[in-house]
């Protein structure tokens, strides 16, 4: 196949339809999430050499030893966050390629995203601009600390696995707000959904996942 033909195939509606069909088969039900996945051009968030694989349901490398999350996981985390009610303001920890933030940007009014690796943040900022995604604000920071100046958030998504739940993140949740994050426990990672109530938090285990580790400090 010529480069041109594969280019058309890769971005065609059919290719994205197949991905959305697969997510449906795997239990994603929220139509808002499925149409956000349909609308965001994932091939723009990966290196050109990998763009023919952008609509496969797999994680892919994005440089700096990091990965763009698997679409199913992006959908699952987004669905878990939205199930809590209307979200105006959401924080993401771990911008990476910017894909998860771009999906969230279709669904909530304001997305705040922090990344510890400057180089990744630089390219994701350029991409948001090029794709005319104007409701995402970015910051070069250690996400363990959240984004204090913008708190409280209706939802927080962490896209790297920590060993403990960062207290600052829980503190930056609005009452009724949800934190969705992978936690490392006994050598495996579990996806947790923590909802902040009037007096204390409730935690639900959403199953096993694989994420890159959440690291301290800037790079
Ligand atoms: N959401 C991203 C997934 C990227 S992988 C996407 O859709 O592409 C996880 C990202 O978390 C990596 O880019 C990594 O650098 C970042 N990360 C890890 N620890 C972090 C921390 N303490 N603060 C902010 N970002 C962090």
Number of strands: 9
Structural class, by secondary structure, is alpha/beta
Q: Indicate the radius of gyration in whole angstroms.
A: 17 Å
CATH superfamily of the domain at 59-208: Vaccinia Virus protein VP39
What molecules are bound to this protein? S-adenosyl-L-homocysteine
Number of helices: 7
How is the biggest beta sheet arranged? Answer: 7 strands, mixed
CATH class group of the domain at 59-208 = Alpha Beta
Q: Would you summarize the structure shown here?
A:
The chain has 219 residues and is an alpha/beta fold. It has helices spanning 3-11, 13-25, 31-39, 71-82, 99-105, 118-130, 167-171, and strands at residues 60-63, 66-68, 89-93, 110-115, 136-140, 153-158, 173-185, 188-197, 200-209. The protein has a domain at 59-208: Vaccinia Virus protein VP39 (Rossmann fold, 3-Layer(aba) Sandwich), CATH 3.40.50.150.
Architecture overview:
This protein has 219 residues and is α/β, with parallel strands linked by helices. The chain has a domain at 59-208: 3-Layer(aba) Sandwich (Rossmann fold). 31% of the residues lie in helices and 28% in strands. The protein contains seven helices and nine strands. The strands form two sheets. The chain has a seven-stranded mixed β-sheet. Strands 1-2 form a two-stranded antiparallel sheet. A hairpin with a 2-residue loop joins β8 and β9. Bound molecules: S-adenosyl-L-homocysteine.
Key features of this structure:
219 residues, alpha/beta, Rossmann fold, seven-stranded mixed β-sheet, two-stranded antiparallel ribbon, 7 helices, 9 strands, binds S-adenosyl-L-homocysteine, methyltransferase, SAM-dependent_MTases_sf, EC 2.1.1.77, protein-L-isoaspartate (D-aspartate) O-methyltransferase activity
